[in-house]
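Q&A log
Question type: sequence-to-structure
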Amino acid sequence: MGSMFEPLLATNYRKPLGIRFIEHIEQKTLSYKTYQAIVLIVTFCAYASYHATRKTTSVVKSALDPESDVSLKFSPWWRKNLGRPGSLGSGWAPFNRSDGTSLLGEIDVAFLGVYSIGMYFSGHLGDRLNLRILLTVGMVGTGLFTAMYGVGYWANIHMFSYFLIDQMLAGLFQSTGWPSVVAVVGNWFGKSKRGLIMGIWNAHTSVGNIVGSLVASALLAYGWGWSFVVPGLMIAFVGLVVFLILPVSPESVGSVAEEDQVHSPRKYGEGVTEPLLQSDTEDHKKAVGFIEAWKIPGVAPFALCLFFAKLVAYTFLYWLPFYISHTAIEGKYLSNATAGNLSTIFDVGGVVGGILAGHISDHLNARAITAASFMYCAIPALFFYKSYGSVSLPVNILLMFIAGIFVNGPYALITTAVSADLGTHSSLKGNSKALATVTAIIDGTGSVGAAIGPLLTGYISAKSWNAVFTMLMASALVAGLLLTRLVVAEVAAKFAESSRQGGPTSVSPPQPEV
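Response status: OK
Response body:
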C-alpha cells in the first residue's frame, strides 16, 4: 500500500493555501467527505454570486427606461447616436429614449452572445488548466466589469457604447463559471444520486437570482449605480475564497475516496461497468477535443433542447421584473423595487423544480423523459400565468411559482446532472478530461438561445406581451420535441428490461445513439 500513498504525499504542495491552513489548525488531513462538503459549499456560493451579478440588470431596467409604452424602432444600434443623451422621461440616457427598451435588449444579447461564445473556449481551457485559477480570474473579472457598469452612474456616462462594451467584457469573464464549477463537482461525485445532489446544488442559480434581485432592489433608492457595484464587490470577494480553498479534484489534494465510492460501478447498459473515480495515472490522458465531444451520444439533442429551454428561462431572468412593473395587478401597478422583489417567487419555484427534476430523474433513471415532461408542462403554466396573473397578487404569486418549477426544472437538470453524465460517458473509456468541454458545449449552445430570447423580447414586448408568451410557449414545445428520440429510446429500454425480468423495474437504460 506504500506505493499508493507516496504520490499522494507528493501532491501536498498543490493544495490551496486555505486547505493547508485548515489542516495546520486541525493537525490532521481532511477526509474525503469533508472535501466534498467544501466543494459543494464553495461552488454553490461561487455560481450564486455569478447569477447575482446577472440579475441586477433586469431589476435596474425599469429605472433606466421608464418609458415602456412607446413603440420600438427596429434599427440596429450602430445607426444610432451612441453618445447623445436621451430626451424622454426621468430615466438614464440613452435608455430613456423611445428606443430605450430595444437598446437594453441589445445589451442583453451582446452580453449573452459573448458569454455563449466564450463558454466554448472556457470549456476547452477548463479541461487543460487549473480550474481554481480559471474560476478565480473569471470571478474577479466579472466583479470588475459589473462594478464598472455602475460607475457610469457617478461618472455621468451616457454613451451606449460604454455600457455595451462593458457588458460584453463581463459576459466573457462570466463564461468561465459554469464549465468550471460543473467539472469540479463532477470530479468529486459519482453518478449515484447525481440528479438529486446536483438538483439541490443547482439551487445556486435561483438563490443567486433572489439575492441579486433583493440587493439591487434595496439599493435602487440610493442610485442605480450601487445595484451594480455592490454585487460586483461580492463576487470578487467570493472569487478570493475560491482561490484560497477550492480543491478541484481528489488528485489535486492527494485525497482518496472511501471504499464504496472507488469501486461503485457506473452502469451503461448490460454488463458494462467502470469505476466512478479513476487512478492518478489517468490524469495524463489527453483531453477530449471539441468535435469529439459533440459526437458523444446524447450531447447534440440535449444541447439543442437547452437552446430553447434557456431562451425561456433567460427571458424571465432579464424581463420578468420589467413585465411585472408594467402590468396592472388588480388594477394597480407595482413599483420597480416591489416588482424586483416579487420576481424572486419565480426563482423559488426554480429551486423546487430543480430538486424535483433531479429526484425524479434519479428514481426513473431517465433524464430525457423527465426533462421533456417538464418542458411540456411549462406550456400550460406559461399560458395561465399570462392569462390570469393580473387577477390578484396571490394568484400571480402562485402561477409564477408554478411556472418557475416547470421552466427551471429541466434547465437545471440538463446543465448539471445530464452534462456530468455525458462528460463521463462510456464512449470516453474512462477519460475524465471531457467534463468541462461537454458542459461548455451544452450550456454554450443553450446560452445562444438565452441571448436570442431577451433580444426578441425587447422588440416584441413593445408590440404585445401576448406575442412574447406565445414565443415562449412555442420554444418550450420545441425543446420537448427535440428530446423525442432519446425519450423513445429510454421508454423502449425500460419495456425491454421489464419483459426480461418479468415485471416493472427501474434500471439504467443504455445510452441511446444519436
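Response note: The first helix runs from residue 2 to 10.
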